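Marked as duplicate of an earlier ticket. Keeping the data here for the record.
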Amino acid sequence: MTEPKSEIYTILSGLGNAYQMRMGVTRDMPCYIYQVIGNVPVYSLDKQVEYQNIEVAIDIYAEDSEGSGGLLTTLVDTMLINNYRMTYCADIPNDKYSQISTVFNLAGY
């Protein structure tokens, strides 16, 4: 069975500052803040895990829209290489910095 929390941290830390969801981290911008929002194993008839439906929410924080947009492009490309596809993306209004919220799931589900 895949342990998605450490896998996602490894992927994101290769791109820059990466943190598990917690408050007060945005001072280290640009950064990625993530949380596993779903991890459902799908079992075969012989009770073995065939695959997992893994969903990960990743927020991108940067000083401006240009910075967060560039990080988004890199994130999508990197996640696809690691078999995760983006299923949601939205700009989050914020007066202090640029924030993009995304959701990825493990491809194949």
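See parent ticket for discussion. The beta strands are 17-20, 31-43, 49-62, 84-92, 98-106.
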